[in-house]
Write a structure and sequence with these properties.
Mean pLDDT: 88
Structural class: alpha/beta
Shape: elongated
Radius of gyration: 32 Å
Number of helices: 3
Number of domains: 2
Oligomer: single chain
Largest sheet: 14 strands, mixed
């Protein structure tokens, strides 16, 4: 019988195979651990770079608080500026690189852009860069800023922060914070309460009530007031100044209601017409103090076509002003009188006001010493782009005899900010009466409001501020 002999090397082969598997697994595991360790080191270095970049921003905010006009880090020379970042216990752990640039208009610095790069010492490739804008916060961060109580109707759609120093009845849809400076207020019949009732600072049937907050600190209307004297001087030297064309101090006289009609042409120019005549209309005023409405132009004459300077879009009109057209740069328009005591001009929004581009490169800030009113013959469906400030009066549209050629209107769409010292109003509930249909609303039947996010951090020059303190109004990582 033939006997089988065991295969020599069998155990050695098994040892080699399992050894190879073990070495492969061990190598893969080691590689994984090394990769994770490297990734962790990179992440740690990146976090340190981010912290160093933030420290750079905080450093230059401190520097500007002590040297407000110094954009050179005390060197007198252009950047970037390299600053060591030290750990009190471990010596230098990184480096800060700062680029500082100022944004100017009409020869004045309006904001400062700070680009801070953090470079960690242990891994210089793990740099992080943060860009921030340092400026005073402005009213452009709101959709509405009011100094009086207000009723937002159920047709309203409001996108953007909505604030009143008075009480708010919010029946509309607001998709951002709605804030009142009052804890409670007296709601009267003009706000839909009969009999009078004490209500919370913000109340109503509007949606997303979790966004309502009261009381909050007031917005100081005296603080946001424009310095008309300084603006007039700047317009005279660097922008456009138009002297008063109307005359007299009696509001019942027709000559008091003359002024200028400005048409922005969308090509860097504005056509200016003198308003030589206006029509007196029967009305109910959004500003209860008004006894005359002459916002309807009856005659006008050509005055000039003006090219707006690229570096100073400031226009100061020491008279009433009618406005319309397409804005193709940053423009600030002032209607105020500092020459004649007792004269407070108003602005009239005669037609659509739009931007040539909606990427933030174009913008309008319109500041009137008294009212900002929508003309009786404004478009049935109207679009208004801009920051509209009725510093001493009201923003809105008066109610005219209706139903008629001026009433009612369709949809009013505002992209920007409305600032009003008095209660606003662009719709009048039961303002019209017809023998056949009974009572109906006057003014604009539908209203859509949204703040301009692009202009909230980069508004036109001299837009009123809400604080005297500078802060980071924009912040992003590159």
């Amino acid at each position: 019988m033939k006997r089988h002999q065991p295969v020599r090397g069998y155990l050695m082969l098994l040892a080699i195979v399992f050894g190879a598997v073990f070495i492969t697994v061990l190598g893969a595991l080691s590689g994984y651990v090394l990769t994770e360790n490297r990734a962790q080191s990179t992440a740690t270095a990146g976090s340190r770079g981010f912290a160093i970049a933030e420290a750079g921003l905080e450093y230059y905010r401190w520097f500007l608080a002590h040297y407000p006009n110094d954009l050179t880090n005390g060197t007198g020379s252009a950047g970037p500026y390299t600053i060591p970042y030290n750990d009190p216990e471990g010596g230098q752990t990184g480096t800060i690189s700062l680029d500082i640039s100022g944004n100017t208009s009409c020869g004045q610095t309006t904001s400062i852009d700070i680009r801070s790069t953090g470079i960690p010492a242990e891994q210089e490739s793990a740099t992080k860069t943060i860009v921030a804008r340092y400026a005073r916060p402005t009213v452009a961060r709101f959709s509405y800023v009011l100094n009086d109580s207000v009723w937002a109707g159920d047709d309203r759609i409001i996108n953007g922060p909505y604030h009143s120093n008075g009480g708010i009845r919010m029946d509309g849809t607001a998709n951002a914070p709605v804030t009142s400076s009052l804890s409670t207020w007296l709601c009267t019949s003009s706000f839909g309460c009969s009999p009078n009732q004490t209500k919370n600072g913000v109340w109503g049937s509007g949606g997303i009530q979790s966004l309502w907050e009261y009381p909050v600190p007031q917005v100081d209307f005296a603080g946001i007031a424009a310095d008309f004297s300084s603006l007039k001087t700047t317009a005279n030297s660097s922008g456009l100044y138009l002297a008063r064309y109307s005359s007299g101090t009696n509001k019942n006289q027709a000559n008091y209601w003359r002024g200028y009609h400005l048409i922005f042409n969308g090509n860097g120019t504005v056509t200016i017409r003198r308003v030589t005549g206006t029509t007196s209309l029967s009305f109910v005023g959004v500003n209860a103090q008004d006894t005359v409405d002459r916002t309807l132009i009856s005659s006008e004459s050509f005055y000039s076509t003006y090219t707006l300077p690229a570096n100073c879009g400031l226009i100061f009109v020491e008279d009433n002003v009618w406005v319309e057209g397409t804005i193709d740069r940053k423009v600030t328009l002032i209607a105020a009188n500092i020459t004649t005591t007792g004269i407070a001009p108003s602005a009239v929004l005669k037609n659509d006001i739009t931007y040539a581009a909606t990427d933030g490169s174009d913008g309008l800030t319109l500041i009137a010493e008294n009212n900002v009113l929508i003309a009786p013959n404004a478009p049935h469906n109207m679009t208004l782009n801009g920051i509209f400030v009725a510093q001493g009066g009201a923003f809105g549209r008066n109610l005219y005899s209706c139903p008629g050629s001026y009433e009612p209107k369709g949809t009013l769409t505002i992209l920007g900010t409305t600032v009003s010292n008095l209660r606003t109003g662009t719709q009048w509930q039961n303002g019209c009466y017809s023998f056949w249909s009974g009572y109906s609303d006057g003014g604009y039947q539908s209203r859509i409001d949204a703040f301009d996010r692009n202009l909230s951090t980069d508004p036109p020059p001299f837009t009123p501020t809400t604080s005297t303190d500078y802060e980071f109004v924009d912040w992003r990582e590159e």
